Amino acid sequence: MRKTTSLTQTVAFARRWHSTSVRLLLLHAAIFSLSVMVLLGLIGWAVTGNMERQTDAIMNWQLVYFDSVADSDLSTVIRMRLERERMHTN
């Protein structure tokens, strides 16, 4: 019984596959899926690049700022900056 059901399903799929509309539908679905994956990849790449540039700019600014502070005052300046940052968090 199972073999005839499986064979019937295989024959039904083979008949449907010969239909042009089914072929076009599957081709359209494949192209659409590929397009969505490429689009999501490009968006992820762009967002990651932007975040890296912003992080690099902030890190460079902090390096310049902390380099301009005298070594004896560095621990005090860092502590004050951390306290100020803590006040701005929600």
Task: Give an account of the 3D structure.
- It contains 3 helices and no strands.
- The protein has 90 residues and is mostly helical.
- The mean pLDDT is 87.
Helix content: over 70%
Parts with pLDDT < 50 across at least 5 consecutive residues: none
Main β-sheet: number of strands, strand sense, barrel status?
none
Number of helical elements: 3
Structural Rg = 30 Å
Into which percentage range does the β-strand content fall? under 5%
Secondary-structure-based class equals: mainly alpha
Number of domain units:
1
Along the chain, the helix and strand elements come as: HHH
Shape: rod-shaped
Concise overview:
This protein has 90 residues and is an all-alpha fold. 89% of the residues lie in helices and 0% in strands.
Summarize this structure as a short list of keywords or feature phrases.
90 residues, mainly alpha
Write the layout of secondary structure elements.
Layout: H1 2-17, H2 20-68, H3 74-88
